[in-house]
Amino acid sequence: MDYEKYLNSNVKNIPISGIRLVNNWPSKIPQSSQIKLNIGQPDLDTPEFIKEATIEALRFNQTRYTDSMGSLQVREAICEFLKRKQNLLYSPDEILVTAGGQSAIFASLKAILSPGDNVVIPFPSYPPYINAIKYNKAKIIPLKTVLADNFDIPLKQLKEILEYTQIKALLIISPGNPTGVLTSHKTQLELVKLASEFDFLLISDEIYNQIVYTAKSYQSLSQVNEARERTIIIQSFSKMLSMCGFRIGFIAAPKPLIDQIKVIHHTMNICASSIAQYAVYKTLTDPQKMDEAITMTCQTYRERKSQCVSYLEENPHIEVREPQGAFYLFPRVPNINMTDFAKWFKYQYGVLTVPGAYFSIPEFSEHNEYIRLCFTEKIELLRTGLQRFNEALGIFIRKESR
Ligand SMILES: Cc1ncc(COP(=O)(O)O)c(C=O)c1O
Question: Of 96, 155, 226, 339, which one is least surrounded by beta carbons within 10 A?
Fold first, then answer.
């Protein structure tokens, strides 16, 4: 049977995120001996008190649908969390509990984008945004950011675009995946000013905002004057509390936007998992245990980050900056095709990494000189992985220059 003809012609040619494709590349190293630095999945276990709360959810029969928005008690607890951590004031009807950040992204974009709408994305970026925009037949207007400028958004270029093009939204991920960079306060102010002047929405993916290594406290885009009314915050408990498999996150946005996003979310999910919602409710209402767990998580990644950066800095071929948040290193190796390297590296050494090109578009060929390495493995494994990386890169560069 010819199934092709049944598939949505707009969707069938859009490939899955390259991050997953790396798993299918061949390797002469058996799978059990491979080192996976490709997936941003915390190796840390979910904290015990959250596991207990999850078991309690089952004992208390928290296994029914909740309100589509999420149970009122969890949304109230989320409002309290936003106020406590970032002094953000939201009411429960401005919060939508979702099946992780990923479904928050999809539902938000589906709710706001019509075919032909323009969305500005600074690249490199998190690939599922690209797919979600394409599914809606909207257009991506790309901005190139580079390591030499600390991946700062090129505001001059953005202004030029805005002079001639009406955009629906601009996407910011801070701390960034794959860059680990925080959008500076100065840039935030500029972006918000431009959003008001040229009338567009800001989508602010803040899912890594509890994993930050700078002395200054994290500033949500929504804290900037006038931003709140045009910002959709994407949040998730996956990374901050090592809860990826719970599939739970939320959106904070003005009510008219939430009301529309809710329709998409309801159609896809009815509601987020009631068991995960209960676990999150118990977590948020025990701020001391929650903060302890986040501090431990952050400390673990901070130590790994410093060691990993030192390893990479030993390599003369590499340009690297210390990430300010999240758990990704995004070094550059000038004039080397890192997609070819990553494939060869996995084949020869059994270490999985993601080429920078997979977070970008072909026009920005410089991003092919980058590679993403996650420090979501135990330090011993990271050490071995990065030793192999340094050794392999030397051999690969010599091989290429012959
Ligand atoms: C920037 C960013 N947003 C959203 C997500 C989705 O995460 P989750 O659906 O587990 O909350 C990820 C996952 O890696 C991410 O890196």
Answer: 226
Centroid of ligand 1 to alpha carbon of 101 (angstroms): 5
Atom 4 of ligand 1, nearest CA residue: 101
Question: What SS3 string covers the chain?
Answer: CCCHHHCCCCCCCCCCCHHHHHHHCCCCCCHHHCEECCCCCCCCCCCHHHHHHHHHHHHCCCCCCCCCCCCHHHHHHHHHHHHHHHCCCCCHHHEEEECHHHHHHHHHHHHHCCCCCEEEEEECCCCHHHHHHHHCCCEEEEEECCHHHCCCCCHHHHHHHHHHCCCCEEEEECCCCCCCCCCCHHHHHHHHHHHHHHCCEEEEECCCCCCECCCCCCCCHHHCCCCHHHEEEEEECCCCCCCHHHCCEEEECCHHHHHHHHHHHHHHHCCCCHHHHHHHHHHHCCHHHHHHHHHHHHHHHHHHHHHHHHHHHCCCCCECCCCCECCEECCECCCCCHHHHHHHHHHHHCEECEEHHHHCCCCCHHHHHEEEEECCCCHHHHHHHHHHHHHHHHHHHHHHHC
Nearest CA to ligand 1 atom 7: 101
Q: Which residue among 208, 209, 236 is best mutated to probe the pocket of ligand 1, counting the most ligand atoms within 8 A of its Cβ?
A: 236
Nearest CA to ligand 1 atom 16: 177
Q: For residue range 216-238, what is the model confidence (pLDDT) as tens digits?
A: 878 899 988 889 999 999 999 99
In this structure, the residues whose C-beta lies within 6 A of any atom of ligand 1 are 40, 100-102, 126, 173, 177, 205, 207, 236, 238, 244, 249
* Structural domains of the chain in order of their starting residue, each with its CATH number: 4-45+290-397 (3.90.1150.10), 62-286 (3.40.640.10)
The pLDDT tens digits of the residues spanning 248-295 come to 999 999 999 999 999 999 999 999 999 999 999 999 999 999 999 999
